[in-house]
């Protein structure tokens, strides 16, 4: 049953990816803006333009271009970036670790902040403190991530400059890393000096991404906790002599967490989308920042590569959430 | 000295102060089975909930005392009270389908109180749980301990909840309509099981039910409630021989008989209800504020 489900999911994923590829391929070719014109210096002749256009295959029809591109992709060749003239796959995979680290850090922060808010709010339900948590939640939710980013830059980069607000790591540092996962590799190599520098760079953009998600997690989890707290098995646990803290965390939480988990999966993909603007804001060298540059330069192969990669990440996250759901809910485990 | 002694207990809703229990007193001796009878909303479940300290948040205790084994629970700080109740008393809940945590295995749901609250060793607690599951006639208890609630039938789950209630060898068990949610064919078995366990362990039982037939089978004494007031308290023998309150007599008369199911189904007469309502209103008037 499990394997059937997995194979079916991989099938639908493939269809989704093809759909995404077609849409992106057509859209970026239909919108105005010519990549070739942007590459050539002013004063280039018509003949120069035509030669370069032919070189990149842009003189062919869109379906023909698509076929050529798909043939390449199936052999692991996503084309060459027009602006940097490097293989798209190398560029994209080079930036992927930075964005993954940022997204995961933001997700962890959101879960911690939102989880604490929900548990505290449930523990203090009916008091003024619960009202205060609800208000804070509402505020966090009604401001988008990039505005939180601006606020954090002003607060911790300008007024009280305690964190780095630009880049991924201090440029003058010597980096011994062999992978792109700086945050994990610095820990692995026990280079805590580098780790501290990287965290100091990541903390603000990650927090900007985390705040709205934390609010959503906090709100939904508190709602399901409060509903669960009325159920009979929670009451029965009280008669055994357990206090409020135990009842909330051991009896209610494992059941209340399921709807939140589904939502986190959906919201995590939004968070990855949010990295595009937040990375730009903090000059963080990730995929999002690269995506904006690619769009500005009309670097068609690079845009295609990035979008496909984002689509792969989105579907992978959803798959992981589905599997986790099965693990956490014993009722789904046995037919 | 009674093991459980409820004195002048008054409960009301927190927001509009509407009374739910009015000056209720009752005594349950060690090993005695006491029935709490009444219509829906009469407040019979509220007595058990007040004793166990699981009243809904909307309900507050406006007055009275609840003495359990010589200590007034209402004078204890919350943590001490929980611990005392957890060691001395237990609950057999109404609906076995919702009273077990769906994401926890059966074993820990029986042993948790013994290990966490009463400080038993885990192996001892597990041995105790296995014994009890055998006593409530569950086949292959070791396997059931590892299962999740959704893998078991309603009757099985109620047996498990009964075993769990007896786990710490409590002196008092509150059974809150323990057969209402079950299939009729299972009801009898469960009733017999509870009565048998009670007799073997010598546990006092506060048996909440709306079924006088059940009371006549398992209880020694009973209280009849109406609108949060106790109308009559007596031994089961005296009650079924000659109820003193007209409402009790009418309740007895409303019990359907197998020999004449249609004709025996008589409602409580309007006149008695009207008189009771007037009495309650007079009581509330006298205790206003």
From TrEMBL, chain A:
Q: Where in the cell is it found?
A: Cell membrane
Gene3D superfamilies, alphabetized: MetI-like
| Record domain ABC transmembrane type-1: where | 96-325
Where are its TM segments located?
A: 7-31, 98-119, 146-166, 198-221, 256-282, 302-325
Q: Report the sequence similarity comment from the record.
A: Belongs to the binding-protein-dependent transport system permease family.
Query: What GO cellular component term, any one, is given?
Result: plasma membrane
Q: Give membrane topology per the record.
A: Multi-pass membrane protein
Q: Which UniProt keywords apply?
A: Cell membrane, Membrane, Transmembrane, Transmembrane helix, Transport
**What GO molecular function annotations does the UniProt record carry, in alphabetical order?**
dipeptide transmembrane transporter activity
Organism of provenance:
Gemmobacter lutimaris
Q: Which domain of life is it from?
A: Bacteria
Cross-referenced PANTHER family = DIPEPTIDE TRANSPORT SYSTEM PERMEASE PROTEIN DPPB-RELATED
Record's keyword annotation contains Protein biosynthesis: no
Which SUPFAM superfamilies does this chain map to? MetI-like
Any single Pfam family the record assigns to this protein:
BPD_transp_1
Put simply, this protein is called ABC transporter permease
Automatic annotation (TrEMBL), chain B:
Could you state one GO cellular component term attached to this entry? plasma membrane
Please classify the protein's predominant subcellular localization into one broad category.
membrane
Report the superkingdom from the record.
Answer: Bacteria
Work out whether the entry's keyword set contains Translocase.
yes
Where the record annotates domain ABC transporter, the positions are 4-252
Q: Which GO terms describe its molecular function?
A: ATP binding; ATP hydrolysis activity
Where is this protein found?
A: Cell inner membrane
Membrane topology, record value? Peripheral membrane protein
Its keywords, alphabetically, are: ATP-binding, Cell inner membrane, Cell membrane, Membrane, Nucleotide-binding, Translocase, Transport
Q: Which InterPro entries match?
A: AAA+_ATPase, ABC_Ni/Peptide_Import, ABC_transporter-like_ATP-bd, ABC_transporter-like_CS, P-loop_NTPase
Question: Which family, according to UniProt?
Answer: Belongs to the ABC transporter superfamily.
Q: What is this protein called?
A: ABC transporter ATP-binding protein
Give the species.
Gemmobacter lutimaris
């Amino acid at each position: 049953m499990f394997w059937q489900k997995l194979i079916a999911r991989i099938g639908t994923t493939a269809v989704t990816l093809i759909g995404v590829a077609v849409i992106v391929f057509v859209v970026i070719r239909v919108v105005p803006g010519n990549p070739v014109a942007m590459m050539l210096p002013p004063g280039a002749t018509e003949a120069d333009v035509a030669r370069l256009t032919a070189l990149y295959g842009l003189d062919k029809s869109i379906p023909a271009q698509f076929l050529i591109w798909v043939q390449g992709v199936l052999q692991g060749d996503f084309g060459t970036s027009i602006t940097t003239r490097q293989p798209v796959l190398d560029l994209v995979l080079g930036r992927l670790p930075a964005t993954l680290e940022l997204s995961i850090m933001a997700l962890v922060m959101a879960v911690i902040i939102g989880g604490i808010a929900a548990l505290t709010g449930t523990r203090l339900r009916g008091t003024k403190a619960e009202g205060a948590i609800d208000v804070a939640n509402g505020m966090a939710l009604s401001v988008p991530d990039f505005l939180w980013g601006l606020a954090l830059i002003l607060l911790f980069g300008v007024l009280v400059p305690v964190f780095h607000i630009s880049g991924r790591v201090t440029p003058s540092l010597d980096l011994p890393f062999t992978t792109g996962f700086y945050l994990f590799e610095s820990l692995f190599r026990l280079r805590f000096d580098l780790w501290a520098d990287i965290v100091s760079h990541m903390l603000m953009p990650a927090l900007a991404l985390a705040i709205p998600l934390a609010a959503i997690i906090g709100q939904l989890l508190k709602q399901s906790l409060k509903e669960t707290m009325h159920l009979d098995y929670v009451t029965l646990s009280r008669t055994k002599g357990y206090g409020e803290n135990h009842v909330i965390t051991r009896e209610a939480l494992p059941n209340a967490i399921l709807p939140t988990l589904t939502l986190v999966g959906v919201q995590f993909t939004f968070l990855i989308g949010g990295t595009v603007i937040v990375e730009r804001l903090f000059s963080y060298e990730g995929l999002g920042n690269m995506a904006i540059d690619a769009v500005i330069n009309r670097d068609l192969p690079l845009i295609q590569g990035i979008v496909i990669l984002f689509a792969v990440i989105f579907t992978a996250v959803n798959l992981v959430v589905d599997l986790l759901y099965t693990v956490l809910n014993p009722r789904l485990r046995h037919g | 000295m009674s093991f459980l002694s409820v004195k002048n207990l008054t409960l009301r809703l927190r927001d509009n102060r509407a009374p739910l229990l009015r000056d209720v007193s009752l005594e349950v001796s060690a090993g005695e089975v006491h029935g709490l009878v009444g219509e829906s909303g009469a407040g019979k479940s509220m007595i058990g909930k007040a004793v166990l300290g699981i009243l809904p948040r909307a309900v507050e205790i406006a007055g009275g005392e609840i003495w359990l084994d010589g200590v007034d629970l209402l004078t204890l700080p919350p943590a001490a009270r929980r611990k005392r109740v957890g060691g001395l008393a237990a609950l057999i809940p109404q609906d076995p389908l919702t009273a077990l945590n769906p994401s926890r295995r059966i074993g820990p749901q029986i042993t948790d109180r013994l290990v966490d609250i009463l400080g038993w060793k885990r192996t001892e607690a597990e041995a105790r749980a296995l014994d009890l599951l055998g006593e409530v006639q569950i086949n292959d208890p070791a396997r059931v301990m590892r299962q999740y609630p959704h893998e078991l039938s309603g009757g099985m789950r109620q047996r498990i909840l009964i075993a769990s209630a007896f786990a710490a060898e409590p002196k008092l068990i509150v059974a809150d309509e323990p057969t209402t949610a079950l299939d009729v064919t299972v009801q009898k078995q469960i009733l017999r099981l509870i009565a048998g366990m009670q007799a073997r362990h010598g546990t006092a039982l506060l048996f909440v039910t709306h079924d006088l037939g059940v009371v006549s089978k398992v209880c020694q004494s009973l209280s009849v409630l109406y609108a949060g007031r106790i109308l009559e308290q007596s031994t089961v023998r005296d009650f079924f021989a000659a109820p003193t309150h007209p409402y009790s007599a009418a309740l007895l008369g409303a019990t359907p008989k197998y020999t004449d199911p249609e004709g025996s189904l008589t409602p409580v007469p309007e006149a008695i209800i009207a008189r009771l309502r007037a009495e309650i209103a007079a009581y509330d008037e006298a205790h206003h504020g």
